[in-house]
Amino acid sequence: MEKLREVGRPVPRVDAFDKVTGRAMFTDDLCPKPCLEAKLVHATIGNGRVVSIDTSEALAEPGVVAVFTCFDVPDICFPVAGHPWYADSKAEKRDLADRKLLDDRVRIYGDNIAVVVGEDSVACARGVSKVKVTYEEWPVVYDAQESLAGTEHPVQERCPDNLLAHSLAVTPDEKLAEQGYDSVEAVLADPRYHHFSAHIESREQSQVHIETCVSYCYEEGGKIVCVTSTQIPHVVRRVIGQALGIPWGQVRVIKPYIGGGFGTKQDVHYEPLNAWICQQIGGRCVKLEISREELFWDTSGRQPKSFDVEASVDDDMNLRARSIVAYSNTGGYGHHGHALVLNSVNSFRWLYHGQEFATRSEAFTAYTNGPHTGAMRAYGVPEGNWAAECLMGDIAYDMGWDGVEFRLKNVYTDAFVDEFTPGGVIAAHTCAIPECVEKGKAYIEWDKKRAEYANQTGPVRHGVGVALFVYKTAVAPFALETATAALTLNQDGTVQLQMGATEIGQGADTVFSQMAAEAIGVDTEDVHIVSFQDTDVTPYDSGAYASRQTYVSGTAVKKAGLTLRRKILDYARFLYPNAQGELTLRDHHVLDALGHPVCDLKTLALEAYYNLDRADQLHAHETVNVHTNAIAGGCTFADVTVDMPLGKVTVNKIINVHDSGTLINPKLVEQQIHGGMAQGIGFGLYEEVQVDPKTGRVLNSTLLDYKIPTSMDVPDLKADFVEKPDPTGPYGNKAVGETPVISPAAAIRDAILNATGVKFYVEPMTPQRLFEGFKREGLI
């Protein structure tokens, strides 16, 4: 196999200069000023309905152009999640069409019930303050299991029991019978094995991206043009069409540079409403930008979940059976629905598959009057990993086993195949978990520190912890995976690359450029890609989520690159019919079979454009359907100091080691891992959207009250890799964008357990929870 030349190079980001110099244009930078602005009127109850809205005083405010209420908008329900669309009946089931532009049925505190349009933001704010609303108020239910027990007024009328979805995956009876059992419960209860159980919880986390949700819309050429900060421009186009009841071709969506998303912008939050407002005011440009406070309670953070887990294990460290029952709180709207908790319980099951032969995973997703939730980095897997690794940590601690040895004995291998996942088969083609663990152990000095930290006393103690993780790449085989790439040879011999896939800060444009260069046979620096997606111009791609783009969209890039390479060489053969043997392309030149230059690429490009006999703009436009998946994995090791009276945990050292196949750009991967580790530390120790269960109101919707780790809280972050190419990836690559956030929280929890012997089951492990735990165990 020929050595890769561009893939694997730590080339600088193609957008780095524009971003660090301020040249990069984001949505608000592009918005024409002045323009009309829109501000939402939010419900001040958590459950009920709007009886009436008086807009007369608001309309009398200077600068207010219009006020639209929930009684004015079309009676159309539409989906908002960035899920793939299907050309059959599965679409309606999958996409959860349970939103309206504005709604008189109030399901969550802060629901959108009206919108004020004004000449500027001050006029809008004054108008909003003058809107008078009369409600019929009903009791609020926030707990998922309480909601499933029944409420007088269902949160969503189409689900009278408040159950959005339920799933169950169990080892088949015939496989259990081979071992002499009739159920998973029988294996768990077998007196020959040690039994463990726990109730575990994870709370809602917010993405806290720098740029809030913002869009502006105007009419041009008979179309609604929506410029928006989104991860999913082609999905936004479709949803606007659905919400307004117009052909999708009448909508044009443009995505400029984006100031972060982490999953929030995998939902279509406000673009349909903004587009409809634009229609109502004669196509004038209108901007709708939400505040930081609105971001916390009117977008979609990580779903809060609870887990009841069980396991049985024999004396030789072999897991014999495991079970998980999960309850997920989607809030007042489905958004991404049951897919999130499915990822939680599936990853729980996939991670450990050593001697275990009996598994049971059951999940429920409930509508409640809590804030609506949705996609966030790693899409439900950090919560499932938290449950899995709390259980594994407890077993190792109680049995007196080395946590690394116990985990490695049971972790999945490259022979792992899971045929019991609803919707499709998942398999691991490669696995480098043991090599990852060895690197992590060495960095954290696992054996040495375990010995040093044994038998500690006093209020301040030290510990080391470990957690492993597993993550699938992309959404196949459960959902459609398709992407398109377009390449054109420019007159100067450089290449233009167009993608519907989106750069959202993760470096996608850079790795696409590298993959295209590799396939064509040119330098990455000779590939030009624009970070703007325009649904009227750029090819279709469903967007940035599920760590799919380098794997799926990258497959389209490679296919297009190989096609363009073939066309270039075919044209060279036309120009130079006497060239010897098979032609190749390398170092800006077409070479013959002996490696002698036939022509340089610039000369060929000029001939292709302007040849009098055979002018041809050489290009490639290729679409792929990807039906495979690739399992990525890895580990986190952490060294912590615990001050029990203060309820304070200091992370001294932490490392993530990843099995992500071939790294397209190692430096970008390192940056991704550092960012994900910081979010994982926040998930484990600080971040929680606090909701008043009596009203459904978010209590900490500012950056003063919602705690995220700062540079003062994050230690030096260490990233490492084991590169074992995966045969299904276009260049042996698999997921890495979301995986770094998965296991830091569980590793820190394991280190706290090692230091203090106290088990924590609710994340984040805030000072209050830590203090209460240490006090409960008599350590304070």
TrEMBL record:
Molecular functions (GO terms): xanthine dehydrogenase activity
Gene3D superfamilies membership: Aldehyde oxidase/xanthine dehydrogenase, a/b hammerhead (3.90.1170.50), Aldehyde oxidase/xanthine dehydrogenase, molybdopterin binding domain (3.30.365.10)
Oxidoreductase recorded as keyword: yes
InterPro entries per record: Ald_Oxase/Xan_DH_a/b, Ald_Oxase/Xan_DH_a/b_sf, Ald_Oxase/xanthine_DH-like, AldOxase/xan_DH_MoCoBD1, AldOxase/xan_DH_MoCoBD2, AldOxase/xan_DH_Mopterin-bd_sf, XdhA_XDHase
Source superkingdom: Bacteria
Enzyme nomenclature, EC number: 1.17.1.4
Domain Aldehyde oxidase/xanthine dehydrogenase a/b hammerhead, chain residue ranges per copy: 21-139
Enzyme category, top tier: oxidoreductase
Keyword Oxidoreductase included in the entry's annotation: yes
Protein keywords: Molybdenum, Oxidoreductase
Name the UniProt record assigns to this protein: Xanthine dehydrogenase molybdenum-binding subunit XdhA
Taxonomic placement: Bacteria, Bacillati, Actinomycetota, Coriobacteriia, Coriobacteriales
Gene behind the chain: xdhA
